[in-house]
Design brief:
Layout (H helix, E strand, L loop, with lengths): L3 H12 E2 L2 E10 L5 E6 L13 H4 L6 E3 L1 H15 L3 E5 L7 H10 L5 E6 L2 H4 L2 H7 L5 E8 L3 H8 L5 H13 L3 E7 L3 H13 L7 E3 L6 H9 L3 H4 L1
Parallel strand pairs: 3-5, 5-6, 6-7, 7-8, 8-9
Antiparallel strand pairs: 1-2, 2-3, 2-4
Helix pairs in contact: 3-4
This protein binds iron/sulfur cluster.
Iron/sulfur cluster (SF4) binds next to loops.
């Protein structure tokens, strides 16, 4: 077990240098009907079903440093060449490197929608971060919940805490009236029902929720098999 907040700090030391951050790829992607994607390096979780490989597990030796302006320009170039109106950062956890992310958003024209795909941990433990993001109306935050409660979160991620930060992130996004939705990974019907009830109790019952389907790429399948978790997802 590891502490994901400590892992965030260690990862930030590897992938963020002043306002620069590491990325390993820029690409057009078919998700959301077409979106320009910058794949970043480094994450504060180690989800056993993660499709990213070296970018999460070997951040030190993966990717190159890019300035916020460079990232913004590359995303725009891809979007314009493909006729997309949406941009995102994927591959790792985009909220690691707060100043970098805010500067990327600042450098982007607001005619593009920006989808922030995050596990929410760093938002849930830093209200100021959510406040700072609330100044970007083009932002849609997709919070990917790794399990429907603390127990399932630890089973899927190997982390000793973090689920409560994810829930807190949802509450803060609601408080700042931001555009957001929930993507839930859970394989337990009872836990899911309890989770839906918890959302209702927190006033989050009307937030759009999608159930995330885990893609069983060969690497993911192998890792889930080693962790004796494959049967949950097949
Ligand atoms: S939060 Fe996302 S990028 Fe990070 S380990 Fe989990 S699935 Fe991979």
């Amino acid at each position: 077990m590891y502490n994901p907040i400590e892992l965030s700090k260690k990862t930030e030391e590897l992938v963020v240098k002043d306002e620069l951050k590491k990325y390993y790829r820029f690409r057009p992607a078919g998700f959301y009907g077409g979106i320009a994607t910058a794949d970043t390096v480094g994450c504060n979780l180690r989800c056993k079903f993660c499709w990213s490989s070296q970018s999460v597990w070997d951040a030190k030796n993966t990717g190159e440093f890019y300035s916020p302006r460079d990232v913004a320009e590359r995303l725009q170039r891809i979007a314009d060449s493909k006729g997309y109106h949406q941009l995102r950062i994927s591959g790792g956890e985009p909220t690691i490197g707060r100043q970098h992310l805010l500067e990327v958003l600042e450098a982007l024209p607001r005619r593009y929608a920006f989808i922030l795909e995050t596990n929410g941990l760093l938002l849930g433990c830093d209200k100021d971060y959510v406040h700072a993001l609330s100044f970007y109306p083009q932002l849609h935050v997709r919070v990917c919940l790794k399990g429907a409660d603390s127990e399932e979160f630890s089973l899927f991620t190997g982390a000793n805490q973090g689920f409560d930060f994810q829930m807190k992130a949802l509450q803060l996004l609601q408080e700042y009236q931001m555009n957001f939705n929930i993507a839930l990974v859970s394989t337990n019907l009872v836990k899911k029902q309890d989770f839906f009830k918890r959302l209702e109790d927190l006033g989050l019952g009307s937030v759009m929720l999608e159930e995330e389907e885990i893609q069983l790429y060969p690497l993911v399948k192998k890792r889930l098999l080693q962790e004796q978790l494959l049967h949950y997802f097949e």
